[in-house]
Amino acid sequence: MKHISSLDGIRGLAVLMVVFFHYQERARTGVFSVLASTGWAGVDIFLVLSGFLITSILFEQRGSDHFFRNFYIRRALRLFPLYYFILLIVVVCTPIFHIPWHLPQVGLFFYSTNYVLSVHGDYGTLGPFDLFHTWTLSLEEQFYILWPWIVGGLGLSRRALIRVCVAGIVIAPVLRFVLLHFHVEPWFIAGSLPTRMDSLLIGAALALIPMPSLRTARLVLLVSVLPLPLVVWKAHSLFFLTAPWQGIGFTCVGFLAAAVLVLSMYPTTLLHRFANLNFLRFYGRYSYGIYLWHYLFSGQFFAFRAWILTLSPHRIPMSLLAFVLLLLVSTLMAMVSYRLLELPFLRLKHRFER
């Protein structure tokens, strides 16, 4: 698949939104609090982008020699080194910090954090380490395991694959409404593949259909935004674990993210120029590492932020200062791990190309 530079910027925007969501105060009034409260939508941007990129690669390469072997090995080379390095840190530190392990937490080693958290929300925390945020990586990895067999293993035509995507996009919110009716654990609804496949399949469908026109993308953007004020009104919140957001809000945000992706790929749009800012593309390059590192030490980061806020009565600028400092620390850690750990494995990917 041809590299699209603007998508690096969109990826960078998504990771900055998530970090802002975690480390900027959301319970207060003001523009920054509102922006922070919507930062969770960065995850949906990641999901749509993943569905788009992975489906583009799979459809382009299906039928080639070693189709499945190449795909899975390349994904492992990209994702496993840093993920399992962090798990290794936790295991090595277990006797040092007397970290108690529970049987469901074994699922962390098998990309099942999304289901581990639905058993108990605290199972994402292991001593001073927080692996809570890896639920999104588990969700994507489960998609990566199953989707190649549908795209490349069943011999479906492009049109049939689009129908599969449409069916999944419709089924996911229906399933969420059913689970909400029966008061199922909100984290299961927010994190399981069947209930969140609409965002991934919106991206997948985007890879399979002809490139939408600017007019179509703007129309989808408008249509996906229109229901959101009603969702906010019903939820009395911008938080993603509330029922209205989980019901229809996730799907709206998924289509909104898809429209943003399309608009960013048109050179004539303002969004394309924005997504190609060096600043955003830089964060797009290191987004995986930043995402993994930024929340691993959330307890220490929150304590540092609380200390920063005591230094001045001007809460908003001090809160922003704390966010910038925490972002810089996460960025530095991501850059180091990329150079020393990720890059040597990424250099092996060329051995498993078509």
Give structural notes.
- By secondary structure, this protein is mainly α.
- It is 73% helix and 1% strand.
- A two-stranded antiparallel ribbon has the order 1-2.
- Helix 1 (5-23) crosses helix 14 and helix 3 (41-61) packs across helix 12.
- The longest helix has 32 residues, at 315-346.
- The model has no long low-confidence stretch (mean pLDDT 93).
How do the strands and helices of this protein lay out in sequence?
Layout: H1 5-23, H2 31-37, H3 41-61, H4 67-97, H5 113-119, E1 125-126, E2 129-130, H6 135-153, H7 158-181, H8 186-191, H9 193-208, H10 214-225, H11 228-235, H12 243-264, H13 270-275, H14 278-285, H15 287-294, H16 298-309, H17 315-346
Antiparallel strand pairs: 1-2
Features:
single chain; 354 residues; mainly alpha; two-stranded antiparallel sheet; 17 helices; 73% helix
Number of domains: 1
Strand element count:
2
**Spatial shape:** globular
Unreliable runs: none
The biggest beta sheet reads: 2 strands, antiparallel
The spatial strand order of the largest sheet comes to 1-2
Radius of gyration: 20 Å
- What number is the mean pLDDT? 93
Q: Quote the distance from N terminus to C terminus.
A: 11 Å
